[in-house]
Amino acid sequence: MKKLLAAVLTAILVLAPVGSFVFQESTTTVDAKSYKSGKKSFNTDRNSNIQNNNINKSDATTNKAKTNTTNKGGFMSGGLMKGLMLGGLAGLLFGSLFANMGALGSILGFLINVIAIVVIISIIRKIFVYFKDKKKKEDTNPWRN
Questions:
Q1: Measured between alpha carbons, how far is 41 from 102 in angstroms, rounded to an integer?
Q2: DSSP 3-state of 89
Q3: Neighbours of 142 (CB within 10 A)
């Protein structure tokens, strides 16, 4: 019985790629190949356009007073390259710290990496639990401010 089952399983595995040649159910052409969208998307009414121009002229003086300010982050704010740089510097620091210790240096480096990962996960978990509890507290007291 085991030999028969092994022979059937082997035959199925050998003949499995043949099924894609025999049973070609998928079409090779794309159905939506010749679709084109319309040329006009939106037409405005001429009368309402004249009224809107008068409104925009009065708002033009107030909009000029606003200035665009960009917020520049500090040293620890975002960025993939900054994270790679800090990670590389930390790796160099711990690599040189545990360099002449042999296998113990590798084990200590691994332990520091594990501790760093656990700290990051615990910080993310605490942030998640904080917002979850805050939402739960708001749901229990919907009539209080």
A1: 70
A2: helix
A3: 6
Q: Chain centroid to CA 108: how far? A: 32
Q: Please give the model's pTM, rounded to 2 decimal places.
A: 0.38
pLDDT in tens, the chain (145 residues): 999 999 999 998 888 877 777 776 666 666 666 666 666 666 666 665 555 555 555 554 555 555 556 656 565 566 888 888 888 888 788 777 888 888 888 888 888 888 988 999 999 999 999 998 888 877 776 666 5
DSSP type of residue 70: P
What's the CA gap between 127 and 122, in Å, rounded?
9
Residue 53 CA neighbour count, 13 Å, CB half: 7
d(CA 40, CA 73): 44
Residue whose structure tokens are 């656990």: 118
Residue 138 contacts residue 127 (beta carbons within 8 Å)? no
**Domain ranges (residues) in the chain:** 101-145
Q: Name the residue among 96, 75, 73 with its Cα closest to residue 85.
A: 75
